[in-house]
Amino acid sequence: MKTTINQVHKYVDQTVTLGAWLANKRSSGKIAFLQLRDGSGFIQGVVVKEEVGEEVFQLAKGLTQETSMYVTGVVRKDERSPLGYELNVTGIKVLHESVDFPITPKEHGTEFLMDNRHLWLRSRRQHAVMKIRNEIIRATYEFFNENGFAKVDPPILTGSAPEGTSELFATKYFDEDAYLSQSGQLYMEAAAMALGKVFSFGPTFRAEKSKTRRHLIEFWMIEPEMAFVEFEENLEVQEQYVSYIVQSVLKNCQLELKTLGRDISKLEKITAPFPRISYDDAIKFLHEKGFEDIQWGDDFGAPHETAIAESFEKPVFITHYPVGIKPFYMQPHPERDDVVLCADLIAPEGYGEIIGGSERIHDMKLLEEKLKEHGLDATHAYKWYLELRQYGSVPHSGFGLGLERTVAWISGVEHVRETIPFPRLLNRLYP
């Protein structure tokens, strides 16, 4: 019976064949222990000389790291194994011998590992991170489908920018200027006017010259947009969604979290509702904590967000930021003209902002004024966006969640470069 490692639990005491690679091995006299991987998981193969004979045993002892093979054996329960099972090997058929695999079970520098990212992905740790990423993606589709959202795909090439062009990658679109999308939000607003509740899930690009552990040049965003939804209801959707994906990872990725050494007691506390603190109160709090450098009207940096997050066990919403530090499309506070109806969701444990969201301006005249203030072209590039307020405008809200930061937080990984298969960083376009 040919199967995969994640399915061996169905075949206890039965003979199966796995297509696998050798991750590592050790031998002790007349027994060889093969650490096998097949993409679905890792399992130990035990080769006993007395049971397989001299030829198979010598073949097993001579296997090199990342050699590919078919391995046949009997599935046995083993409580000492992280998987709970091991394979008593009876036969091996080598498919391709791997020679001098560069990533050995020793310490390697970050740059070396990044240069060999195409091979580093095979490691047990990177496998665990990618499986958690996959579970978050799966749970995202499940959450939004179950809650009546339609998936819509906004364009990646755009003629306008939601948040200005300073951090955009520009290109020529025949005889016009175009940009790689930094957000699908404006298009999702149009989709929400047609379909009510929508979400997108795609790549976004920021030409931001940052080298921090929180930043990538290319990353993936989940961007829901909802018609007839105002500020408070928008926050409720966000906390329900984040709680859902965390609980899904806890349920379906126990082995991966254990591999990464993640403290799951911290994740078990992530259930809605989440605490909230206003920007005004956050400034006061930071002054009390000794951050005299931050003044009302300044945006928060990583140290400020971390200090605020440390006071809470759950993600925390920072609400009602000043108008001057937020994009043009955010709805002003009904009782204050200096702040907008927006919130950033800050993850615990120093992982920073994972969601930015707001109620959007739905009044056409106000939006015209804001476009003018920001020097944006309401007669051409943003004409269609303005027209959304001309034909049956309604209150509407949305948010964007950065996938890689969320993966980093949930998996407990230090740097976002490990949370995307092939990271694009300030000085890295290879591999």
UniProtKB/TrEMBL annotation:
Biological process (GO), any one: asparaginyl-tRNA aminoacylation
EC number in record: 6.1.1.22
Catalytic reaction(s) noted: tRNA(Asn) + L-asparagine + ATP = L-asparaginyl-tRNA(Asn) + AMP + diphosphate + H(+)
Heme in keyword set: no
SUPFAM superfamilies from the UniProt entry: Class II aaRS and biotin synthetases, Nucleic acid-binding proteins
Domain Aminoacyl-transfer RNA synthetases class-II family profile: 130-431
Compartment(s) where it occurs, according to its Swiss-Prot or TrEMBL record: Cytoplasm
UniProt enzyme class: ligase
Molecular-function GO terms, alphabetical: asparagine-tRNA ligase activity; ATP binding; catalytic activity, acting on a protein; nucleic acid binding; transferase activity
Alphabetical list of InterPro entries matching this protein: Aa-tRNA-synt_II, aa-tRNA-synth_II, aa-tRNA-synth_II/BPL/LPL, Asn-tRNA-ligase, Asp/Asn-tRNA-synth_IIb, NA-bd_OB-fold, NA-bd_OB_tRNA
Keyword Disulfide bond recorded: no
UniProt KW keywords: Aminoacyl-tRNA synthetase, ATP-binding, Cytoplasm, Ligase, Nucleotide-binding, Protein biosynthesis
GO cellular component terms, semicolon-separated: cytoplasm
Sequence similarity: Belongs to the class-II aminoacyl-tRNA synthetase family.
Subunit-structure text: Homodimer.
Name of this protein: Asparagine--tRNA ligase
